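Record type: monomer structure entry
Structure origin: computed from sequence
Chain ID: A
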Amino acid sequence: MELLLLTAVFIAVAAAAETGPDSAKVVKLPPPTLDGSMSVEKCLAERRSVREYASQPLSLADVSQLLWAAYGVTVPLPNVPGVSGGLKTAPSAGALYPLELYLVAGDVTGLEPGIYRYRPEHHDLILVLAGDRRRALLGAALGQTAVRDAPASLVYSAVFSRNTVKYGTRGRERYVCMDLGHSAENVYLQCGSLGLGTCAIGAFHDDSLRLVVRMPKDEEPLYIMPIGRLPQRKGTGD
């Protein structure tokens, strides 16, 4: 079964490669909201992993809010090297910020389907590859249907050298994992406040995921977080 999935992934990626990346396209995201309608305590109490989603699109405002919550800049420091534009919503050892975020968009109102890289310093998206790549992502994720059914997924990677240059082995084995946990929990809580659901997925073929989102050689994949609207609860009418 895994061999079939891997074959499907490489076929899909090879077909996508014919079009090539379109790194010139920039999508400016709307400003994030800094005062939501749900308390942090309520988000914490209701936080759950959600693997099934309603058949409804996300909005560009949803995407903007989620990416900002994950790794957005809160204190701009444009002239400080190595901090990707400033201090962020998630803490990072030594303010080294080793994480990179991609958006695999399939059904987002106001955004063409494609794979995008998030730039925290500009709060925008750079198109990496056009087209709906959710089926390729499904193959890389061992057939977990949440990534196919969600209107969009976040994909996390890390440039470990940003941490190991200062912290050595401890930076790789501990601090990057801490960064990922901080950021992913932010996504969970932001989803809760927006009426969305997500699930942190760590089971995937690393090389296949690298190919699907076109990661540079210095990045290693860490997480997939499919995101969608909560399905209607049976018997509640809401």
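Annotation 1: Residues 90 and 183 are 5 Å apart (CA to CA).
Annotation 2: The chain has one domain: 2-229.
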